[in-house]
Every structure is written in structure tokens, then in C-alpha cells.
Amino acid sequence: MDQISTFGASRYAVRDLQLFRDADDPGVVAALAPCAVIKVAAGARVEDGLRARLYIVLSGSLEVAPDAHSVDDSGTTRVLPGESVGEQAVLDDAVNLAAMTALEDCELLVIEPELVWQLIDRSNGLARNLLRLLSFRVRAANAQLKRRQKLGEFYRQLSLNDGLTGLYNRAWLNEMLPKLAMRARQDGSPLSIVMVDLDHFKRFNDTHGHIAGDAALSSAAGVIRDSLRPSDFAVRYGGEELMAVLPDTPLGLAEMVAERLAERLRTAMVFPDMRLPLPHVTGSFGVATLAAGDDEHALMAAADAALYRAKQAGRDRVSV
Ligand SMILES: Nc1nc2c(ncn2[C@@H]2O[C@H](COP(=O)(O)OP(=O)(O)OP(=O)(O)O)[C@@H](O)[C@H]2O)c(=O)[nH]1
User: HSE-up of 284 (CA within 13 Å, CB side)?
Assistant: First the structure.
């Protein structure tokens, strides 16, 4: 990163610099003449020290990562001849955290911050160009932020869904059931749940293999998902334990929903592949409704107790 010349003695002209477009009056040209032109070899970092400076690429190209501490390289920009980097750090007098690396041998014009301010005072054209550039940068940063938010939301959704069945998972239940219970208490609306435990599933796995077991689980999950209203939720909260969460649903209606699920499960097909039809699986169902003054733990315990009764009574049935 050696100084090889001054701008005035170099082969470059002020009109080629984007920031100085329509702002190349003789005063500006004279002020820029003593500024350093440096050479940076391909692959080398532009070492800015602790002082922000304005750099304008005269030849070659730079890659700029927004923050030298950032680990991901999404959001890096390529700065081409005539374009500048570092103007924001100069304006707010901050240390330039951007990591600048030469993509090929480069020549850069270096403008010290004091001179940038003097030039802004002197040239309306430069001030206008700077404002335009900053406005463009703000828009680009906002767009990137939006993209990241969307990506974050995508991964959040992913973390709340079960990979095998696509149903909501235990993390979802832990986050959402307390909220649904609180809303039900506040609104005075009934909240019911139906716990489903597949019957003799260990035997099914042992007889037909784990892959067939996975297919049976997916089939059962599909039955639940496809049988509910859009406002209900289907959850896989354990290995072979599924649940329907039914807001605004009193106990009697929840029991009917459970009966419908039991019936559909009895007849649902399980196909791990097209050559091997498998026996149907059945489930035991425990239904409960949030009682006045109770919380989600009491609701889960009530449904669990009902499920236990369904198992004890011979499985493949609904208990309240
Ligand atoms: N294939 C498959 N099996 C699972 C999965 N998660 C849990 N299981 C199996 O589910 C079985 C549950 O067995 P148990 O809890 O003993 O109950 P069960 O055999 O269904 O008997 P009952 O509940 O009393 O009717 C175990 O063998 C688990 O390995 C899964 O993701 N895929």
C-alpha cells in the first residue's frame, strides 16, 4: 500500500470520479491535486488504521465487506473505478469498520476527512452527489435488512416444525400453548386439546421396521392435519405422540373431533413404498378442555390422564 503519486501528477481526471460529477470546478481540481494516490496489490487489505478516509478507486477493483468483524460474506460489494468507499465513516467521524480488499492490482485516491469537509463547504455539486450516494446506500441497507428478516423468519418457522411430519413440534407447543391458554382465559373462550398416542407402535416398528414406522407416523400426522379447521393446530410433541390444539372449542365438540380423527386413522393407508401395503395403525385419544383458573400444564395433565384411560380401556378409542 505505497503512495505512488499525487492525484495532480497522475493520469486520472476529476471528472472520472463519480462523487465529483458536475463538481469539477478549478477550485476542487486544485484542492484534490496534492492528495495521495496509493497502489494496493491484488489480495491485499487496505489498511485504514484508526482514521476514516475517503477512498476512490482509480483503477482495478476493491471488495468491501460491511464490517471487518462480520463472519458471513453476504453483503460484500465490489467497488469499481470512479466509485468511492468510506464516505459514511468520514461524515460521522467513525472508525471505518469495513474490510476493504483489492480484487486485483488497484490504484486508489485517498482523501483525508478534513479535505472532504472543506470540499463539501465549497461545492454544492459534491454535496448533492454525496447525498444521492448516501440515500442509495440507505435503501440498499434497508433492502438487505428486509431480506435477512425474511430469512430469519424462514429459519424460525423451520425450527418450530417437525422434520418428519411437517406438523408443529414441541418447541412450538411450549411457546404457543401458554399464549393460547392465556387468550382463552382473557376472552372466556373454551380451549381444548386432543392428545393422540399411536397404539402398540413399538410392535409395529419391530414387525415392519423403522422406515415403515416413520411412514405410519406421517400417515397419522396427515390424518390429523387434514381433519382440522384452519384455526386449529396439529402438533407432534413426542416420538409417536401427536396433538390437536382446538381454540374456541368446548369439550363436547372436541370429543366429536377426536372421534372423527380416530375413525379416519383406522382407515388411513400406510405405504412405505408402493409394493408393500401395511396394516392400519390405530390411536388412543385423550380429550380435555381448559378449566376456569387452570393453566396449560393442568390442561396437558388432564388430557394425559384421559389418554391413559383410553389405553387402559383397550386402546383405539376416545376418552374424556
Ligand atoms: N418409526 C418411528 N418410531 C418412533 C418414532 N418416535 C417414537 N417411535 C417409537 O414409538 C414406540 C413407542 O412405544 P411405547 O411408548 O412403548 O408404546 P407403544 O408400543 O405404542 O404401546 P402403547 O402406547 O401402550 O399402545 C417406540 O418403539 C419408539 O421407538 C419415530 O419417529 N419413528
Answer: 18
The pTM of the full predicted model, rounded to 2 decimals, is 0.66
Residues ≥6 apart with Cβ < 8 Å to 320: 251, 255, 287, 288, 306
Superfamily of domain 170-319: Reverse transcriptase/Diguanylate cyclase domain (3.30.70.270)
Report the separation in Å between the CA atom of 270 and the middle of ligand 1, taken as the mean of its atom positions.
16
What are the phi and psi torsion angles at 220 (to 5°)? -65, -40
User: One of 83, 87, 107, 240 is an active-site residue; which one?
Assistant: 240
> Which one-letter DSSP state was computed for residue 35?
S
Ligand 1 atom 27, closest CA: 202
Query: Is residue 311 in contact with ligand 1, taking CB distance under 6 Å?
Result: yes
Q: DSSP character for 281?
A: P
Examine the residue annotation and report whether 175 is marked as an active-site residue of this protein. no
Q: Whose CA is nearest to atom 14 of ligand 1?
A: 202
For ligand 1, is residue 241 a contact (CB within 6 Å)? no
Each residue of 88-100: pLDDT tens digit? 888 887 766 678 8
pLDDT the model gives residue 271: 77
What CA–CA distances, in Å, run from 197 to 229, 233, 274? 21, 16, 26
pLDDT in tens, 122-173: 999 999 999 999 999 889 889 988 998 999 888 888 899 999 999 999 999 9
Tens-digit pLDDT profile for residues 246-272: 999 999 999 999 999 999 999 998 876
Distance in Å from the first CA to the final CA of the chain: 78
- What stretch of H or E contains 28? helix 26-32
Q: Is the CB of 238 under 6 A from ligand 1?
A: no
The residue type of 238 is G
**Is the beta carbon of 195 within 6 A of some atom in ligand 1?**
no
Domain with CATH 2.60.120.10 in the chain: 2-150
Domain 2-150 has CATH 2.60.40.730: no
